[in-house]
Design goal:
The structure holds two protein chains of two kinds.
Chain A (H helix, E strand, L loop, with lengths): L4 E3 L2 E4 L5 E6 L6 E7 L6 E7 L2 E4 L8 E4 L6 E5 L8 E8 L6 E2 L3 E5 L1
Parallel strand pairs in A: 2-11
Antiparallel strand pairs in A: 1-3, 3-8, 4-5, 4-9, 5-6, 7-8, 9-10, 9-11
Chain B lengths: L8 E5 L4 E6 L7 E8 L6 E6 L4 E2 L4 E4 L5 E6 L8 E9 L14 E6 L1
Parallel strand pairs in B: 1-9
Antiparallel strand pairs in B: 2-7, 3-4, 3-8, 5-6, 6-7, 8-9
Classes of the chains: A mainly beta, B mainly beta.
Chain lengths: 112, 113
């Protein structure tokens, strides 16, 4: 379909490993957002891209988290040295400038 | 962005109207009220938004008080598929805003047969 696509849908990894989560936004959407959602909580903002640049990365919890969007379309969220506390659903959303956000189904990360 | 306050949970009978309240007493002039919902294991879904006038679309109606300090989302004929967590969010549209949504805990709406 033409919605936001996130891969993988599920990822299980071991503590200390490196993880990449991918987001394919809706074609033509210039704005892209990453969120993290822990069980029983609302989504927590991580980072916002306008085009290729990270316009707001104030939600990234620490320097183990990094995201890129090199061509202004697909984005990758990278987590180094994963910890058990990183276990969550990572949500990606895209929008036309400041229009409504369209969310993907999320990538569920489990760190053992 | 202004904070919002919502009841943690509500029940509604199937076929009846569901009225979900939200307080946003610190909302400023250029901030809109947005509603999203999240059905279990899915990403949040946009429902409706408004600035100061009441709004209606195919999913719901949004009633905003004259002082804009509170609003109510109305699902006119709730079905079992409307069981979800409903988030009320205040979002700035000005040039200094990123457009990001700040989610609270939301209201868990349980529609019962």
């Amino acid at each position: 379909g033409a919605g936001v696509s996130q891969t993988p849908s599920n990822k299980v990894t071991e503590k200390g490993k490196y993880v990449e989560l991918r987001c394919d936004p809706i074609s033509g959407h210039t704005a892209l957002y990453w969120y993290r959602q822990s069980l029983g909580q609302g989504p927590e903002f991580l980072i916002y891209f306008q085009g290729t640049g990270a316009a707001d990365d104030s939600g990234l919890p620490n320097d183990r988290f990094f995201a890129v969007r090199p061509e202004g379309s697909v984005s990758t969220l990278k987590i180094q040295r994963t910890e058990r506390g990183d276990s969550a659903v990572y949500l990606c959303a895209s929008s036309l400038s400041r229009g409504e956000l369209f969310f993907g189904e999320g990538s569920r990360l489990t760190v053992l | 962005d202004a904070k919002t306050t919502q009841p943690p949970s509500m029940d509604c009978a199937e076929g009846r109207a569901a009225n979900l309240p939200c307080n946003h007493s610190t909302i400023s002039g250029n901030e809109y009220v947005y509603w999203y919902r999240q059905i279990h294991s899915q990403g949040p879904q946009y429902i409706i938004h408004g600035l100061k006038n009441n709004e209606t679309n195919e999913m719901a109606s949004l009633i905003i008080t004259e002082d804009r300090k509170s609003s109510t989302l109305i699902l006119p004929h709730a079905t079992l598929r409307d069981t979800a967590v409903y988030y009320c969010i205040v979002r700035g549209h000005g040039s200094g805003n990123t457009g990001k949504l700040i989610f609270g805990q939301g209201t868990t709406l349980q529609v019962k047969p």
